[in-house]
């Protein structure tokens, strides 16, 4: 069997070898590697396309191993495993109050905050906080519902899908 993966690795020396060596030790054959060093993600990671071959058991153990190493698997055979979404919060609240709301979002199960950019308006008028989140593919709608509830409770204007 052959499996095509899109993973994201930190941009530090040795990261690719650190994932390929254990896969090889499982008995997986690495048939293709495309390392997109010029296409960094918003959080500075490098997309890597891998094609690995092996038995069904070897491939399942390989995916488990990659996840145990904390490596983000974005796609498996073209099927998105995680989705990113950019949200904007607009408020005239103090920066710490806005960050308190962001911290509540960070506590939602199946939501990972990938980046935060807070622009404070002059005299605290209409500060804007851009938050990029990542959710497991089938959990996005529930996560957005919870985020919208946080925004309403904390009196923030939420702009979704930008």
Annotation keywords:
five-stranded antiparallel sheet; alpha+beta
Structure description:
With 162 residues, the protein is an alpha+beta fold. 31% of the residues lie in helices and 40% in strands. The chain contains four helices and nine strands. Helix 1 packs antiparallel against helix 2 (56-68). The longest helix has 14 residues, at 140-153. The chain is elongated and about 60 Å long. The model has no long low-confidence stretch (mean pLDDT 88).
The parts where pLDDT drops under 50 for at least 5 residues are: none
Strand share of the residues?
Answer: 35-45%
The major pleated sheet works out as: 5 strands, antiparallel
* Helix-residue proportion: 25-40%
- Would you tell me the overall average pLDDT? 88
H/E topology pattern: EHEEHEEEHEEHE
Write the layout of secondary structure elements.
Elements lengths: L1 E9 L4 H12 L2 E7 L9 E9 L2 H13 L3 E5 L2 E2 L1 E10 L3 H12 L4 E9 L7 E10 L3 H14 L3 E3 L3
Antiparallel strand pairs: 1-3, 1-4, 2-3, 4-5, 6-8, 6-9, 7-8
Helix pairs in contact: 1-2
